[in-house]
Design a protein that fits this description.
By secondary structure, the chain is of the alpha/beta class. It has 24 helices and 30 strands.
Length: 698
């Protein structure tokens, strides 16, 4: 990245505008830390009230500093921040850290102040980090450009893990807890309101740093999806693990995010799909963020989703197996060769299939074989990660097994499956052993549930290569015209003025439905099995329904499995999303929905169908014939290409009826109803909130 960022993270000189002499003021911390903790650059406190501060000469203005400055810290109230930025820009500062709050996060008046701040930065030719942030820390340059209380710790930056996030308080917690666990962060940045510098911009600089192996991110707002995709793509290209904690995904969370940072969140479904595409690890709280970073530090994540469980307690093994199964992680039976090796070490009344229960007796006899047991399980071809479950093993026994396990992990090398430990015993009896394991890069949990959640996150499959497919560009029109342009089959239809003639043309029995109504079933706007004799009366009844814009006469098709297939044109700058689910009138009841970025290839379409809970109905259930899957895949692929329609809000087909492969119908998939909305249409509702990568609950 730009050498300008080197001037920010490793500056030759730092100015502190508004430096204070009050030792009890948090804003006094940056000066004290810069002068006492190894920062090699020049430090210039700026305040006309003092001749010196902390043993360093103090100047009245930056104009008195010879040679200019690389980085400025604005330790002033919000109303004086723009003037400080102007002063710093005149002194040649690459960036100014604005700590003060009272900007866009507080409303219109604050937003005006923030606009003034950005304008001052543009005019002065400098960048702004913040406002409403807690600054930054870089271990290698010993730059403490922050006031967070976590900076009081003796930070060394030995972990190779970096952090960038929008909340100062959350960031301070990450820095503090990481240091307490022996994971001193190598770099730490709080971006606050992001009036200028965004977390994605500085994140792209950090993932390119060869000394950073993991970048952790806390995000409340991702204002530019393209920037996020660039960050994720560059992290993957550099081999840097990217772990993201994103808040504000629920409606209450979005309200809180607005009041906290003055920014509105986008569509979480597209965010998760983009993250999955690039192999980003998504977590749900700070504990998971740090645990995932520990597991990924200096090594790869699990190659798949199979877990080997090694336990000192049969009960703990059962609990872990249950939790793993609930999370969709496999607990495979180990190979016969592996079990034979284990049987030589594990007592007869133990277990060697998986979970592997070594029993307490192994430790009563000295426990020296414990590391060997874990190594054997780790070497089994069916195992992608090893979870070690320990109960009341404390004191010297704890230290011995920790040394044994750490030695085994180191001996097998970083290419072997990762290992994590759950220690269900008090900290007072296990603290030194836990510290030894963490120093060896082995994460230690106190909760089986937390350990399984983290394994689930890091074991997500690497992002698949984007579907390489040129979307079609059909001519926009109503839903039926769009289906025709996409080549999606639909029943024969007629809007003939004489309904009896229309029904007669379709074989004497047809379906009549009122057009212009979104929920036709509730309005009794669909009539099946209408004969030529009844056509006129039914037509008149449907045409009289409130909101009806016409009556469609449609070919009646055989019953089949009904799907919902919808595609949008992209929202808030995110890529278009395809939704496939169990359709029909009970779609909201089934809540059986999966997603992918649109358009999709046939391979992706087939994967989506297989991920549905209604898959047995598609494949054939209890003797019923399965549907024509090739026809279903073809229809989904064609519908996904609607994302290219200019101004498309959403195209929804519900139901798409799938008929058996042996069907005598001319088409084995038929779109029975369709709705199209433009991006400006108020009916283009918010997308579903995802609860994991592909499956979502609507």
């Amino acid at each position: 990245m730009s050498t300008e960022w080197d001037r920010v993270l490793a500056p030759r000189s730092v100015a502190l505008i508004g430096a204070t002499g009050r030792a009890d003021n948090p804003m006094a911390r940056p000066l004290r830390w810069l002068t006492e903790r190894g920062f090699a650059g020049r430090v210039h406190p700026v305040n006309p009230k003092y001749a010196e501060l902390g043993g360093v000469p103090c100047v009245a203005s930056l104009a008195e500093v010879d040679g200019g400055v690389d980085l400025a810290l604005a330790l002033v109230p919000a109303e004086r921040a723009a003037a400080a930025v102007t002063e710093a820009g005149a002194a040649g500062a690459a960036a100014v850290v604005v700590f003060a709050s009272g900007f866009a996060e507080v409303g219109d008046a604050g937003r005006a102040l923030q606009d003034e701040l950005v304008a001052a930065a543009r005019a002065a030719g400098t960048r702004v980090l913040g406002p409403n942030c807690q600054g930054l820390y870089d271990a290698r340059s010993r730059l403490f450009a922050t006031f967070t209380g976590a900076g009081e710790r003796p930070l060394t930056g030995s972990s190779g893990i970096a952090y960038v996030g929008q909340s100062g308080a959350i960031g301070g917690s990450v820095l503090d807890v990481a240091a307490e666990r022996g994971l001193d962060l190598s770099a730490w940045v709080s971006t606050g309101n992001e009036a200028d510098v965004s977390l994605t911009e500085i994140g792209r600089h950090l993932v390119a740093d060869p000394e950073i192996t993991v970048l952790t991110v806390y995000a409340e707002s991702l204002p530019d999806p393209d920037d996020y995709a660039a960050l994720a793509g560059e992290a993957r290209a550099h081999g840097t693990a990217l772990v993201v904690l994103r808040s504000g995904r629920s409606a209450p969370g979005r309200r809180a995010a607005v009041s906290h940072t003055g920014a509105m969140l986008g569509d979480d479904t597209a965010f998760r799909l983009v993250s999955r595409r690039y192999g980003v690890v998504l977590v749900d709280d700070v504990e998971e963020l740090l645990a995932a970073a520990t597991m990924l530090r200096g090594r790869h994540g699990p190659a798949g989703r199979s877990v080997g469980l090694v336990t000192s307690s049969g009960g703990a093994g059962i609990l872990a197996a249950d939790r793993a199964s609930d999370a969709g992680l496999a607990v495979p039976e180990l190979t016969a060769e592996t079990q034979e090796k284990l049987a030589r070490l594990v007592p007869e009344f133990g277990a060697v299939a998986n979970p592997v229960d070594v029993t307490a007796q192994l430790f009563n006899e000295g426990g020296g074989a414990f590391g060997e047991v874990c190594g054997i399980v780790r070497a089994d071809a069916s195992v992608d990660a090893v979870l070690v479950l320990l109960t009341m093993l404390v004191g010297e026994t704890a230290m011995a097994l920790a040394r044994d396990l750490a030695a085994t992990v180191a001996e097998q090398g970083p290419d072997a499956p990762p290992v994590a430990v759950v220690w269900m015993a008090g900290e007072d009896g296990t603290a030194p052993a836990r510290a030894l394991l963490r120093e060896a890069g082995i994460p230690v949990f106190s909760s089986i549930a937390l350990a399984v959640r983290v394994l689930d996150a890091v074991a997500a499959p690497d992002g698949a290569a984007p579907d390489v497919l040129e979307p079609a560009a059909p001519v926009p029109g109503d839903g039926w015209a769009l289906l025709d342009a996409l080549g999606v089959r639909r029943p024969l239809s007629s809007l003939a003025p004489d309904p009896a003639d229309a029904v007669d043309e379709l074989g004497g029995v047809a379906v009549l439905k009122a057009e212009g109504l979104e929920h036709k079933t509730e309005a009794r706007a669909v009539r099946l099995g209408v004969t030529t004799a009844d056509a006129a009366a039914v037509h008149a009844e449907l045409a009289a329904l409130p909101g009806a814009t016409g009556v469609l006469v449609q070919e009646q098709v055989p019953a089949g499995v009904e799907l919902l297939v919808a595609v949008d044109g992209g929202r808030d700058g995110w890529p278009p999303v395809l939704t496939v689910g169990h359709g029909g009138t009970a779609t909201e009841v089934h809540r059986d929905v999966v997603h992918a970025l649109a358009p999709v290839t046939p391979e992706t379409a087939r994967t989506l169908l297989g991920a549905l809970r209604c898959w047995p109905l598609l494949a054939g259930h209890r003797g019923a014939p399965g549907v024509d899957l090739d026809a279903a895949v073809d229809a989904i692929v064609r519908l996904s290409r609607a994302c290219a329609v200019p101004g498309l809000g959403e195209l929804e087909v519900n139901p798409l009826v799938l008929l058996p492969a042996r069907s005598t119908s001319d088409a084995a998939s038929l779109a029975l109803d369709a709705r199209i909305a433009t991006s400006s249409d108020p009916r283009h509702a918010e997308g579903a909130i995802a609860v994991d990568i592909l499956r979502t609950e609507t």
